[in-house]
Amino acid sequence: MSSAKPARDVDAPVKDRGARSRDAILDTAGELMSRYGYAATSISMISAECGLPPSSIYWHFGSKDGIYVAVLERARTALLAALPPAAIPGADVVQRLDVFLAHVEEAFRRHPHGLKLLLGLGMVQQDASAAAVAEVHHYRDALVVWARDSLSAVFGLHDRPQAADELARFTLRMASGTAVARWFEPGAVLETGPLRVALLALAAHHGVPGTRPSGEGGSPG
Amino acid sequence: MSSAKPARDVDAPVKDRGARSRDAILDTAGELMSRYGYAATSISMISAECGLPPSSIYWHFGSKDGIYVAVLERARTALLAALPPAAIPGADVVQRLDVFLAHVEEAFRRHPHGLKLLLGLGMVQQDASAAAVAEVHHYRDALVVWARDSLSAVFGLHDRPQAADELARFTLRMASGTAVARWFEPGAVLETGPLRVALLALAAHHGVPGTRPSGEGGSPG
DNA sequence: GTCTATAACCAGATAGAC
DNA sequence: GTCTATCTGGTTATAGAC
Description:
Two copies of one chain form a homodimer. Chain A is mainly α. Chain A has nine helices and no strands. The N terminus and C terminus of chain A are likely disordered. At the A-B interface, helix 8 and helix 9 of A face helix 8 and helix 9 of B.
């Protein structure tokens, strides 16, 4: 028996050792950076954790910024793939909202690093490369667009972009706040119950039909 | 002429040069750490910015952790002093809520570093001293207690601690999410309008009297 | 693609004159 | 309390054998 922690597959077919190493580095770096932040995560930490020497890490990613860009890009892709699409099935608003919230809650629960990375690395502006800053904003913008489109579809706000923006900001800030809470209480999840009540009230406040608090089925037939 | 940036008062009476230097260091460190985070802020950066040599900084605070603890302690004191006390004046729920939200919005607007420091430094667990970790949790706990007490007073939830906890978590997560948003849009403020609607709806959902959406004055007399 | 070894540098922290 | 000068160790990054 070699070691208790086979972080990477040394005996894998030589064919794709490179791709496997690359993934191992990204896994380790994502884990460490989401926990300690970009600045506090060193190449030696990543090297020690994933078992590859620093030079291999540099061979794959070129620089610390390069690792960061790759980690963030992968996190963004994975999170956006897990988030529900804008086309939510459901006849009425409440039905669509419940489907939407269930998907969102699961996506944020299954990809806990997604937002944390954005948070811990958002303050990179210091010595980060232009590519790194661009990727941070790309990530953030993608989430904003997703939130606006989704909530617009759920509540039927295609002709009321301001209301859609408000609901999107509200939802994203709650999600970010939950990500923050998670590094004090690791088990914290997005509380969809209160969020559901809040979104329905906000929509009702904007006069969106089918969101009145009394009578869960909407307007009486 | 000496320099265009007199960051500290070199010609001040010798009497309290120490106290002034201490404050200057804390100001600079707070500014930098809230922008770049703890790990990315170096002693040399602080030294260059405030004009005092590294050894003076160490004389005042002993270590980088020491600076951090002092910065966070001062931020916590200032923020909690600016936040409204639990005893909110106002006859009915809506009145108290409006006073509360106005105070909170102003406190978070006038102390933009307060929460950012907590965010950027929350991930210090890596090589931080026990004192530093303790201060982070002290800060966070103080905010949690404040939120619970305040919202309990506003909505009259003394006998319903679970509802008070839920409203407190909701409010704090929105505030944290806003602090996060602020490092993408520096002008972002806590949006008390939607938060007001949401809190009223949550309270109504819990059956708190005086929070029904229709009829802003509460129950008809 | 992966390794050993190391260059060049900057971080946190200290010594000791004044 | 403040300064100049410096020590030590870790940091990013590279050279070059295999």
